[in-house]
Structure formats: C-alpha cells, structure tokens
Amino acid sequence: MADAVPPPSQNGSRPTRPPDVTVRFDRDMVAPSAARAALRPLVGEPDDLIAEDVLLSASELVTNVILHTGGGGELRAWDPEPHVPLRIEVEDHDPRMPHALPAARPGPGGGGRGLMLVACVSDAWGVLTTDLGKLVWAEFDRDRRS
C-alpha cells in the first residue's frame, strides 16, 4: 500500500490565534497520558460527542512521535467556538512523512494502526511539512456528529 496520508482537507487551514492547549513532550512513554490529561478540559463534558475520539487521536499521534522519531514534539489544540471543529496538531522535528499500514498487516509488536485510527475517528486530518519537520493535524466536528 502506498502512503495512506490524505492531502489536507478544506478544513485543514491552520488557526491564527494561540492554542487553548500546548504540551511539549520528550521521547517519554508518559507523554501520551500527559497529552490526554491536558486535553480533557476541552472535552470534559459527559455528553461531548468527540471526547473519546480526540483523546484517542492525541494519544496515537504523540505515541507515533515517541516511537518513530529521534526526539519529542509539541501537541497543540484549539476549541475555538461553537460550530467550529476542535483541532489538534502534533509537530515534531523529523522530516520523514508518516506511513499508515493496512489493517490486515500490523507492524512489529502489533503497532502500525495509529494513523488509520486517526483517519477513522476524525472528521478531517492531514500532514504538513514544516521548516523543521512535520505536523500531523486532525479535526473533530461536533455539529457533524449531533
């Protein structure tokens, strides 16, 4: 299978205001848990339709940085206002683009499905190159799910 990374969607425009949440993380296996904890205030309502998907996606994207790059990265999130999707971004300093594996062919140790999960649970996602590496983003639209 070729890269399963879709091009940025029309929803993929970058926010212009500072993020509501920023978490810098090192190559440390507690980073996914720290990312989820930092995001919970944005999706903490019991009936929030996107909560589980946001937390799962953040955990997967942070884990990918830890496992597949030589360093850490930064997670940012925006939950701007009603009727605008919540957006998460995870940026790292490795220029290699991520590859998603087919569901029937997990990677060593059973991994390799992180981006496929993000693709399945987000309303839009993509990868952007940056001056220092790459940025993987995902958006979650409460209006589409209600």
Walkthrough of the structure:
This protein is of the alpha+beta class and 146 residues long. It has a single domain (17-145), classed as Histidine kinase-like ATPase, C-terminal domain (Heat Shock Protein 90), CATH 3.30.565. The chain is built from four helices and five strands. It has helices at 31-39, 51-68, 114-121, 142-145; strands spanning 21-25, 73-78, 86-92, 124-129, 134-140. It has a five-stranded antiparallel sheet with strand order 1-2-3-5-4, with helices on one face. A hairpin with a 4-residue loop joins strand 4 and strand 5. It is globular.
* Number of DSSP-assigned strands: 5
Number of helical runs? 4
Which whole number gives the mean pLDDT?
86
Main sheet record: 5 strands, antiparallel
Helix share, percent: 25-40%
Radius of gyration over all CA atoms, rounded? 14 Å
Give, in spatial order, the strands making up the sheet with the most strands.
Answer: 1-2-3-5-4
CATH topology grouping: Heat Shock Protein 90
What are the secondary-structure elements, in order, as H or E? EHHEEHEEH
Shape: globular
Main attributes?
single chain, 146 residues, Heat Shock Protein 90, five-stranded antiparallel β-sheet, globular
List the helices and strands and how they pair.
Blueprint: E1 21-25, H1 31-39, H2 51-68, E2 73-78, E3 86-92, H3 114-121, E4 124-129, E5 134-140, H4 142-145
Antiparallel strand pairs: 1-2, 2-3, 3-5, 4-5
Helix pairs in contact: 1-2, 2-3
Brief digest:
The chain has 146 residues and is α+β, with helices and mostly antiparallel strands.
